[in-house]
Design brief:
The protein is of the alpha+beta class. The chain has helices spanning about 5-50, 55-60, 105-120, 155-160; strands at about 75, 80-85, 85-90, 95, 125-130, 140-150, 150, 165. The chain folds into two domains: about 5-50; about 60-165, Beta Barrel (OB fold (Dihydrolipoamide Acetyltransferase, E2P)). It is globular, with a radius of gyration of 30 Å. The protein starts with 6 loop residues before the first helix and ends in a 9-residue tail after the last strand.
Length: about 170
């Protein structure tokens, strides 16, 4: 025994629903317009505010660690880093290899150079500047000299005996 609701209730419900449609559309249009205005205003503030994203990145200090599986901003070895997803070869130095060392001494010194570079890079802001006319090496790494207050961070590693000034040729460490 199914009982059907009275037809009058159904008509009344539809009538009330249809009456609210105009107000609902107005609210939706106002909400969309307000969202659009907020988005435009936010974009303008982001572009012209003195701490906009591009300027903030240039002023911020990066946090470096030894590279793992994800390589965004980290240290590979004593003369190779990732900075914001860009692989960089420090162009003014050569450090011992740790991925394919020729002897234990090279590996041990390479680990010390890598770990010291992590510390040096975390000490504050630095610039990655090009030297000469070459932008990349044969492996696609950007060739840059890292400078802090006008002094090469690579020179610091050389002074500490953890690197050599780059001569243009790989020389043995063993």
């Amino acid at each position: 025994m199914s009982r059907k609701p009275p037809r009058d209730n159904l008509v009344e419900f539809r009538t009330r629903r249809d009456q609210g449609t105009g107000a609902g559309r107005k609210s939706l249009v106002l909400l969309g317009t307000g969202g659009l205005l907020v988005g435009i205003l936010g974009g303008l503030v982001g572009i012209y505010w003195p701490f906009g994203s591009a300027i903030a990145e240039a002023r911020s200090t990066h946090s470096f660690a030894v590279c793992g599986m994800v390589r965004r901003t980290c240290v590979v070895d004593g003369d190779t880093i990732w900075l914001e997803g860009v692989k960089i070869r420090i162009a003014d130095i050569d450090t011992p290899e740790i991925s394919q060392p020729k002897c234990d001494y090279e590996y041990d010194l390479g680990i010390k150079a890598r770990d010291r570079l992590v510390v040096l890079l975390n000490q504050g802001e630095f610039e990655a500047v090009t030297i000469g006319s070459r932008d990349e090496d044969q492996y696609g790494r950007k060739l840059r000299v890292l400078l802090r207050d006008g002094r090469s961070i690579g020179d610091q590693l050389v002074a500490e005996g953890l690197a050599r000034t780059w001569s243009g040729l790989r020389e043995p460490w063993c």
